[in-house]
C-alpha cells in the first residue's frame, strides 16, 4: 500500500500521521492567559529541536470550529510555557485536560491538579508531574493555508525540574519513570518493557 497524504482529507491525513509516527511522547503544556487563568492541554506532536541551545517543539492544530487553541493563544501572548511529563497515574487527568473547555475555565481545576509557581516563567508547574520544563518561546512556525493550519511552537528550555528520587549519578533514572506515550487512535503505551543496545561508535 502506498498512500499520498496530500490526497487525503485533513481528518484522514491526521489519522494516518498519528498511526505512522509512534510512539509519541506527550507534552502536557501549562500556560497562563492575560487574566491569570491557568491552561493545561496535552500535545503529542512533540520533539527535541536543538541541544545547544536546548530547545523543544510541539505542534498545535486548529479546533474543528476553526478557533485557535488556548495553548497557542496564551503562548503567543505571554511567550512562555511549561511542559510537564505524563506518568501513567496521570493519564485520566491528562485526558480530562484535552477537552475543549472555554478559555476562562482552568483545566487544572477541572482535573483536580495542583499548580506550583515556576522559577522563571509565569506559567505554572504541575505538582503531580515528575518532570517539568520551563520554556521561553523562540519561534512559531505556521504551516498550511487552510482552516486546519498547524503551528509548530519552539521553546528554549530555561530550567528543567526533575523529582529528586528520579535523579541519580548525574542522570534521570528512566527505568523509574512510568511515562506513557501516544499511539494511533485512542491507544497509548507504557515504557516498562525496555531493552538496551550499545552504540557501535561514539560520536
Ligand atoms: C494524548 C493527546 C495528544 C494530543 N496531541 C495533540 C497535538 O499534538 N496537537 C494538537 O493540536 N492537539 C493535540 N491534542 C488535542 C488537544 O489536547 C486539545 O485540542 C485541547 O483541547 C487543546 O486545549 P487548549 O485549547 O486549552 O490549548 C491531543 C490530545 C491528547 C489526549
Are there runs of 5+ residues with pLDDT below 50, and where? none
Named CATH architecture: Roll
Q: Compute the number of helices.
A: 4
Q: Mind telling me the CATH superfamily name?
A: Electron Transport, Fmn-binding Protein, Chain A
Basic shape: globular
CATH topology: Pnp Oxidase, Chain A
Small molecules in complex:
flavin mononucleotide
Name the structural class.
Answer: alpha+beta
Helix/strand order: HEEEEEHEHHEEEEEEEE
Distance between the termini: 37 Å
% residues in beta strands: 25-35%
Strand arrangement across the biggest beta sheet: 3-2-6-9-10-5-4
Let me know the number of strands.
Answer: 14
Average predicted local confidence, pLDDT: 95
What gyration radius follows from the Cα positions, in whole Å?
17 Å
Largest sheet data: 7 strands, antiparallel
Helicity range: 10-25%
Amino acid at each position: 500500500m502506498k498512500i499520498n497524504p496530500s490526497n487525503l482529507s485533513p481528518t484522514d491525513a491526521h489519522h494516518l500521521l498519528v498511526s505512522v509516527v509512534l510512539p509519541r511522547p506527550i507534552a502536557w503544556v501549562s500556560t497562563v492567559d492575560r487574566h491569570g487563568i491557568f491552561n493545561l492541554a496535552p500535545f503529542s506532536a512533540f520533539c527535541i529541536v536543538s541541544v545547544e541551545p536546548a530547545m523543544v517543539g510541539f505542534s498545535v492544530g486548529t479546533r474543528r470550529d476553526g478557533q485557535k487553541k488556548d495553548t497557542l493563544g496564551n503562548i503567543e501572548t505571554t511567550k512562555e510555557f511549561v511542559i510537564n511529563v505524563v506518568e501513567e497515574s496521570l493519564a485520566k487527568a491528562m485526558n480530562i485536560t484535552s477537552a475543549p473547555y472555554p478559555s476562562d475555565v482552568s483545566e487544572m481545576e477541572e482535573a483536580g491538579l495542583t499548580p506550583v509557581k515556576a522559577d522563571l516563567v509565569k506559567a505554572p508547574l504541575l505538582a503531580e508531574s515528575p518532570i517539568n520544563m520551563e520554556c521561553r518561546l523562540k519561534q512559531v512556525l505556521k504551516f498550511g493555508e487552510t482552516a486546519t493550519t498547524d503551528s509548530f511552537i519552539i521553546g528554549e528550555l530555561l530550567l528543567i525540574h526533575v523529582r529528586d528520587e528520579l535523579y541519580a549519578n548525574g542522570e534521570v533514572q528512566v527505568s523509574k519513570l512510568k511515562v506513557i506515550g501516544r499511539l494511533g487512535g485512542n491507544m497509548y503505551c507504557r515504557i516498562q518493557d525496555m531493552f538496551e543496545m550499545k552504540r557501535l561508535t561514539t560520536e
